[in-house]
Amino acid sequence: MRELRVGVLRSVIDGLDRVSRLGGRNPELPPHLVTGLAGEKEAYFYLLRQGYLVVATRWSAGNLPGDIDMVAWKGSLLCMIEVKTRTAHDVTPAEVAVDSHKRSILRRLAQRYIRQLPQASGSQPVPPQVRFDVVSVYLLPGAKPEITHFENAFGWSERGHNRE
Question: What is the DSSP code string of 79-98?
Answer without folding.
Answer: EEEEEEEESS--SS-GGGGS
